[in-house]
Structures are given as structure tokens and as C-alpha cells.
Automatic annotation (TrEMBL):
Alphabetical UniProt keywords: Transferase
Lineage, broadest ranks: Bacteria, Pseudomonadati, Pseudomonadota, Alphaproteobacteria, Hyphomicrobiales
Annotated SUPFAM superfamilies: CoA-transferase family III (CaiB/BaiF) (SSF89796)
Protein's recorded name: Carnitine dehydratase
Protein species of origin: Kumtagia ephedrae
TM annotation in the entry: none
Gene Ontology terms for molecular function: CoA-transferase activity
Highest taxon listed in the record's lineage: Bacteria
Length: 405
């Protein structure tokens, strides 16, 4: 028997995604990048993200990457017969991932109990704003809400007293993506426990909340508050526990990150900027002192950086083996030799755009690498092919006439 082509370590895993927007689709994109067969169920009008971001002729460039490695099946879940099709797909699947509000799938006739009658050992991942239970269970939420209630929006802001603008957003849908990452980890953990040698062959449920995914990333914020009553405050570009570590201006209007917060690094930086006396100054003698006097220290460093072009600063810092980088835009990311060498910037053929840049596959597994098999598909591009695996052609035609697919 011929082995199926391998596309990564999850080759052979089948995932049904009943997701929209960012969190669940991000989760399944990761699984698909690593080889899983992802069947994305969309409404006839398609996932709303197909209309997000910059577009060419009404087609989202983000979707090319966000929807990649998935087979798109259109299905009107409001039609009573749609649930039967989902259950037939669940029979053949290892995993179902969804990110509706809690209880919505059950109201559509697709609760966990019903799905597991189709396949008892099915792994089901629910991604929602606040989780499947608790007093906030039924509240509406998007990633930005999770970022705010989880503490990130507060800590990603400018330092107190430096700005009266609204708290700063990270710049991407980080709350959704974090939830998707946790869901992917939960899915792989559940499948491992089910399928390993001696595994119990039981289905499991992963319950991932956007709010909790963000809160879990907040380092010492809660321990510090619990033990000391201290509320961690935003510090803008700086790290509150180490110095110097910040962004500094160059003469050509760019920013460069310098992280010289160990004793050897700080000594080398001090010599480089012509201030070899700094490590001997009690105000800067150790990390705690440098953090307490960070305003003065950053001013000294910025006085040096303001005299030089950013490329020159970066060259000198690298020669001194001090961690540093320019603040990259998309243009620098796309041209970076390290990203290109590692396959993290790839040119993908998209039927809508021709050649388009995608981010690569993470994690990188050299012995069994994942792959970008195809970009985000057209709405319902794989409906006939996928349903043809479980239904006769004449039944598919009837479903199409009835508006179910």
C-alpha cells in the first residue's frame, strides 16, 4: 500500500473547523501547516476575514495566508439538514474546532454529546471569549476584549504620565492568536493521550478562553500583586525589571532596540559609547541600580545613538556582540537574510494575486517539516470533493438546490 504524501508531523490528522474570524482559524492554520487535513466549514458568504485588511479586486491578502492549507466547504448551518453533514464529517475526523459563543453549536444540534455519538473518541476544542462556564460565559468578546481584561492592554501602554492617548493596542489580533495557539496545544495533547501506545482511546474537550490565554502570559503580574499588593504599570519601550533595554533614536529618524542588561553587556556598551566610567558609577553599578536610574541612563545612551545612522549603530553593536536590532517594518522583515534562510518569508503562488509573500511554518521541524500546500481557498472550493467522500453525487446536487451547501 502506498503511504500518503507527508506534509509534516500531523499528516493523517483530520480536523473539522467550524470557525470564523481569527482564533479558531489561526489554530487550524497551525495544524494545517504541520500537515493536518483541515476541513473548514464556512457559511455561503464565507468567513468575514475574507474581507479584512488590504484587498486586490475585493480579495483579502491576509486571507491568502490565514486560510492556507485548508479545504473550504460551504454549509448553511441554519438549515436543519446541515447538522447531519457535519456529523458525517465528524465520523471521519479526529478533531472538531469551533469558536462560536458557548452553547451555539448545541442550539444547532451539534453539542458535544451529539458529536461524540458520531465518533466517541472525538477531540473537541471550544474557543470563546470567557470560556464555556462562569458568570461571563454569555458575554460577547473579541480578541481586543481579552487583551484588555487579561491585563495586556494596560501593560502595553506608554508609561504613566507620558501620554493621555488611549491604551495602545499591540498592532495585531494577539489575543485571538494566543487563544488559537493554546487550542492547538490542547488538541495535540488530547490526541497524544488518546492515541499513544497504551492510550485510553477517549475523546477529550479543550476549553480555551481568549481572556485566559492573555492572562496566562502576564509573567509576574499576579504574583507581585498577591504578595506585595503592587500593580505592575506600563513602561512603554522599556523592560521594568532590566536596564538598559529600550528603543533609542538614530540621526536618520529610525529606532534601534538595545538590550545590554547584564554586567558584561553593559560594560561593553559603556565602552562603545565612550562612557567606560558608567559601570563604576553607583547609580549604574548593577541591574537594580540601573532600573532605578533608567531615565538618566537612557538619556546617556540616546545622546550617542542620535549622532549616528541606524545601520552604523547596528553594525557597531553587533561587532561588540551586544543584542540589538532595528525596529523592522514589513519591508525589513521581507528582506531579512535570516528570515529568508529559515523559510520564514516565502513566495507562494496564489491564483488571485500571482506571487504573494507568506510567513513560514512554525515550529520548524527539520526531520518532518510542514509545508504551504496551497493559499487560502475560494469560498466552497472543496465542497464537492470533501462531500464526495461521504455522500453520493446526486445527494450533493439536491443539497445545493435546497441551499444547504
Amino acid at each position: 500500500m502506498t503511504e500518503p504524501a507527508r506534509h509534516g508531523p500531523l499528516t493523517g490528522l483530520r480536523v473539522v473547523e467550524i470557525g470564523h474570524f481569527v482564533a479558531a482559524p489561526f489554530c487550524t492554520r497551525i495544524l494545517g501547516d504541520l500537515g493536518a487535513d483541515v476541513i473548514k466549514i464556512e457559511p455561503p458568504e464565507g468567513d468575514p476575514v475574507r474581507q479584512w485588511g488590504e484587498q486586490i479586486d475585493g480579495n483579502s491578502l491576509w486571507w491568502s495566508m490565514h486560510g492556507r492549507n485548508k479545504r473550504s466547504v460551504t454549509l448553511n448551518l441554519k438549515q436543519p439538514r446541515a447538522a447531519d453533514i457535519v456529523l458525517k464529517l465528524a465520523e471521519t475526523a479526529d478533531v472538531v474546532v469551533e469558536n462560536f459563543r458557548p452553547g451555539q453549536l448545541a442550539r444547532l444540534g451539534l453539542g458535544d454529546d451529539v458529536l461524540r455519538r458520531a465518533r466517541p473518541d472525538l477531540v473537541i476544542a471550544h474557543i470563546s471569549g470567557y470560556g464555556q462556564d462562569g458568570p461571563y460565559r454569555d458575554r460577547a468578546a473579541f480578541g481586543v476584549i481579552g487583551e484588555a481584561i487579561g491585563g495586556l492592554r494596560h501593560l502595553s501602554d506608554h508609561a504613566p504620565g507620558t501620554s493621555d492617548l488611549p491604551p495602545v493596542r499591540v498592532g495585531v489580533s494577539i489575543g485571538d492568536s494566543l487563544a488559537g495557539l493554546y487550542a492547538a496545544f490542547g488538541i495535540v495533547s488530547a490526541v497524544w493521550q488518546r492515541d499513544r501506545v497504551g492510550g485510553d482511546r477517549k475523546g477529550r474537550t479543550a476549553d480555551v478562553a481568549l481572556t485566559e490565554a492573555v492572562l496566562s502570559m502576564m509573567e509576574g503580574m499576579l504574583p507581585e500583586y498577591g504578595a506585595l499588593g503592587k500593580i505592575r504599570q506600563p513602561t512603554g519601550s522599556r523592560i521594568p525589571t532590566a536596564a538598559p533595554s529600550s528603543a533609542y533614536p538614530s540621526v536618520d529618524g529610525r529606532w534601534i532596540l538595545i538590550a545590554a542588561n547584564s554586567a558584561p553587556l553593559f560594560s561593553r556598551l559603556s565602552t562603545l559609547i565612550g562612557r567606560a566610567d558608567l559601570p563604576g558609577d553607583p547609580k549604574f553599578a548593577d541591574n537594580r541600580s540601573r532600573v532605578q536610574n533608567v531615565q538618566e541612563l537612557d538619556s546617556i545612551i540616546a545622546t550617542w545613538t542620535r549622532q549616528l545612522p541606524v545601520a552604523d549603530i547596528e553594525r557597531r553593536l553587533n561587532e561588540a556582540d551586544i543584542p540589538c536590532t532595528q525596529v523592522y517594518t514589513a519591508a525589513e522583515c521581507a528582506a531579512d537574510p535570516q528570515f529568508l534562510h529559515r523559510g520564514m518569508v516565502r513566495t507562494v503562488e496564489d491564483r488571485l494575486f500571482g506571487q504573494v509573500l507568506h510567513g513560514g511554518v512554525v515550529p520548524h521541524i527539520p526531520d518532518d517539516p510542514g509545508a504551504i500546500r496551497w493559499p487560502g481557498p475560494a469560498i466552497g472550493e472543496h465542497t464537492d470533493a470533501v462531500l464526495g467522500e461521504i455522500l453520493p453525487a446526486e445527494q450533493i446536487s439536491v443539497l445545493r438546490r435546497e441551499g444547504v451547501i
